[in-house]
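A quick aside before the break. I want you to see a complete sequence-to-structure record at least once, exactly as it would be stored in a machine-readable document. Don't worry about memorizing anything.
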Amino acid sequence: MGADKEVGSIDQAHDSIVWTLAWHPLGHILCSGSNDHTSKFWTRNRPGDLMRDKYNLNMLPAGIPGVDDLDLDEPAMIPGMGPEDKVDNSNSTPEEAAIPGLDFSDLPDDKQKTAQKKVPYSKPIPRNFQAHWNETSRCNVEEGIAEQEF
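That is the input. The structure line, written in tokens, reads:
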């Protein structure tokens, strides 16, 4: 961008044409979007840092010391995540292995589930309709009694 000839490249970075490049506002990360439907994030080496990137593909020019010449420090360990922190789980029971807060002991058995019958929600009958219904049913009952007497 803004140069007539290639300033730099990384082989096998994208499988297709790069459509867009965008810098983070602080300028420490570059994001590239490509026609192969991938977005990749790139960082710059700090001044004095050697190229230890696994994607560097060991293409250093001749005369520049490589990574193989240096002794790498041991990888950083997260406290509590090492092999010495492993606990023997051979004596654990299924109750101990349960997720806290999920108590399945109160759930009914399958037999009880089938015995329960679900009743769908029914909307309550309006009072004026119910009062009118009760009046008409009394009138019909009284008329039926009067007809039987004749």
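Two observations worth writing down. The radius of gyration is 39 Å. The helical segments are 110-115, 127-149. We'll return to this after the break.
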